[in-house]
């Protein structure tokens, strides 16, 4: 019932929503879709009117730096060298007003609040993300994971208690709560012999399950991790939608297992827990289809975050090193086709059962965004009905987000927050984002320049 309430909130968009295409003749539908591509041209520099001069210059400077391949490709190394040379404080002083300010909302609630309110005014919905994550070899003790859980619970509270956004969402990384070593081991185990989903659900409920294949301490840690996830889900259900991030292929199956267990437990009447599907993976389509089947069989609602994927470099290197098949599509075009295919599948099922399925089209790619908007029209899916929304990252492709919001779509900006230290891996990934993201940024850069020139003219 609580999911249904969201369908009643969108009256203020009613007046400019066109009539459903089912009732309209084909020619009119065609004309409308021309109109749509015209309005979603993403060419309006006025999207940047709201930025201060300092913000314009900062964005221009950072995008300029991102256009040097040498800098971008060695970004991780450069940052760690800079950190050694400048020391922790000096490094922080260098990053804070620059890269950090471009991509991160801040460190404490006051700073975050400021950027959130600004965003709300622009019609964008913030989606908080605690960018704590771990890779292999970075494992920390149970205490640190408990601290991380407190940070996530704090994130649930902030997302819910502030009036920043209707239908609030947040992102969650499971490797902040469960050691990556265990996730890798689980992945190996369950690809040989899948665990029963009910077993995981029962462990979440507090039953001391003895998972086969794990030793005593691993079982203990797994049970603690599931308790932590359970606590977060309990705190957020009916309040904040929790979008679980996808990470590396050598742990994703484990992450999906616990995410599906959370869905089974908490998504009975609405999509409160979501999973992420990375379309750059060759198997992404079958993973999505499996999830659709599972949600139908087990009777839970499915929320999907559809992304292309952010760990390409590392995945490729690892596959090469281990001499196994590259899990990632051969070229960007294949990833693009995969994205289109999965998007289509989701929009199709949503048009049939909007109360059971939800998707966030998490991309900066203008073509993908236009394609989603066009299919929504064709299938008669509400722009702001809750089942479909869009997502971009803070500091990236604001022209896409602002245009979508202006057209009445639900748009979330993923907003990481935390210390320079905690957000560093995230920042490095942002700098390495390639290809059309950079083309998109090139365009954003042109639009930023246009806006800058306009202001200079005005001030003369
Ligand atoms: C709200 C939100 C949440 C996100 N959550 C996650 C998450 O949980 N997990 C995650 O991994 N990422 C996540 N991302 C990051 C997302 O994967 C990146 O935004 C994405 O990598 C950039 O893709 P794009 O569609 O915006 O841009 P595009 O420019 O259209 O595509 C770039 C992407 O295409 C793929 N690609 C590029 N070159 C090639 C090639 N040669 N061969 C094959 N594929 C190629 C890569 O995935 C690359 O990142 C999230 C993004 C957003 C906006
Ligand atoms: C990417 O996919 C879209 C469909 O979503 C298609 O229209 C477009 O032509 C593709 N782009 C490229 C460069 O292949
Ligand atoms: C996108 O995917 C759908 C379904 O797989 C397909 O019918 C359509 O032709 C694709 N569009 C493009 C432009 O590739
Ligand atoms: C980004 O582009 C550079 C050069 O064009 C390339 O060497 C690098 O592998 C690319 N990285 C990603 C993540 O695509």
- The level 1 CATH classification is Alpha Beta
Stretches with pLDDT under 50, minimum 5 residues: 1-26
Radius of gyration: 22 Å
How many strands in all? 8
Beta content:
5-15%
Instruction: State the separation between the terminal residues, measured CA to CA.
Output: 57 Å
Dominant shape: globular
CATH fold node name: TIM Barrel
Average of the residue pLDDT scores: 85
Helix coverage percent: 55-70%
Order of helical and strand elements: HHHHHHEHEHHHEHEHEHHEHEHEHH
Family: Belongs to the proline oxidase family.
GO molecular function, one term: proline dehydrogenase activity
Pfam family, one: Pro_dh
Region (Disordered): 1-30
Task: Tag the structure with descriptive keywords.
single chain; 460 residues; alpha/beta; TIM Barrel; 8-stranded parallel barrel; 18 helices; disordered N terminus; binds flavin-adenine dinucleotide; binds 2-acetamido-2-deoxy-beta-D-glucopyranose
Structural description of this entry:
- Residues 1-16 have a biased composition (Basic residues).
- One of its GO terms (molecular function) is FAD binding.
- This protein is of the alpha/beta class and 460 residues long.
- Helix 8 (180-192) crosses helix 11 and helix 14 (332-352) runs parallel beside helix 15.
- The model is unreliable at 1-26 (pLDDT under 50).
- The protein has an 8-stranded parallel barrel with strand order 1-2-3-4-5-6-7-8, surrounded by 7 helices.
- It is 57% helix and 9% strand.
- It has a single domain (106-429), classed as TIM Barrel (Alpha-Beta Barrel).
- The site of one 2-acetamido-2-deoxy-beta-D-glucopyranose (NAG) has 3 residues, from helix 14.
């Amino acid at each position: 019932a609580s999911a249904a309430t969201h369908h009643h909130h969108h009256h203020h968009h009613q007046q400019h929503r066109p009539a459903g295409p089912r009732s309209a003749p084909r020619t009119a539908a065609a004309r409308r879709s021309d109109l749509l591509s015209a309005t979603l041209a993403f060419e309006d520099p006025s999207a940047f009117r709201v930025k201060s001069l300092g913000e314009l210059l900062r964005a221009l400077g950072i995008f300029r730096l991102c256009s040097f391949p040498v800098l971008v490709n060695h970004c991780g190394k450069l940052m760690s060298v800079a950190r050694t040379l400048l020391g922790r404080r000096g490094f922080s002083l260098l990053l804070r007003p620059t890269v950090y300010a471009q991509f991160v909302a801040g460190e404490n609630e006051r700073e975050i609040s400021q950027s959130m309110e600004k965003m709300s005014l622009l019609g964008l919905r913030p989606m908080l993300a605690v960018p704590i994550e771990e890779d292999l070899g970075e494992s920390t003790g149970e205490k640190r994971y408990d601290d991380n859980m407190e940070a996530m619970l704090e994130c649930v509270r902030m997302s819910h208690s502030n009036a920043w956004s209707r239908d609030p969402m947040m992102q969650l990384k499971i490797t902040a709560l469960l050691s990556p070593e265990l996730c890798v081991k689980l992945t190996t185990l369950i690809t040989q012999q899948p665990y029963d989903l009910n077993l995981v659900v029962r462990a979440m409920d507090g039953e001391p399950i003895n998972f086969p294949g794990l030793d005593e301490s691993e079982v203990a840690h797994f049970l603690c991790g599931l308790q932590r996830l359970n606590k977060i889900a309990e705190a957020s259900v009916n309040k904040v939608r929790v979008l679980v991030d996808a990470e590396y292929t050598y742990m994703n199956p484990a992450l999906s297992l616990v995410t599906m267990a959370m869905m089974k437990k908490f998504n009975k009447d609405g999509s409160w827990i979501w999973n992420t599907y990375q379309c750059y993976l060759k198997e992404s389509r079958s993973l999505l289809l499996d999830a659709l089947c599972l949600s139908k069989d087990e009777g839970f609602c499915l929320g999907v975050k559809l992304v292309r994927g952010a760990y390409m470099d590392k995945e490729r290197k690892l596959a090469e090193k281990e001499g196994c098949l590259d899990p990632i599509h051969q070229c960007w075009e294949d990833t693009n086709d995969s994205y289109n295919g999965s998007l289509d599948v989701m929009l199709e099922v949503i048009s049939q059962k909007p109360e059971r399925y939800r998707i966030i089209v998490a991309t900066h790619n203008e073509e993908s965004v236009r394609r989603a908007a066009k299919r929504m029209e064709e299938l008669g899916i509400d722009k702001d009905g809750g089942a479909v929304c869009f997502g971009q990252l803070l500091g990236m492709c604001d022209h896409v987000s602002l245009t979508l919001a202006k057209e009445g779509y639900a748009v979330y900006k993923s907003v990481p927050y935390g210390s320079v230290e905690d957000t560093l891996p995230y920042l490095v990934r942002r700098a390495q984002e390639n290809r059309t993201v950079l083309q998109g940024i090139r365009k954003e850069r042109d639009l930023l320049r246009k806006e800058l020139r306009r202001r200079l003219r005005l001030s003369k």
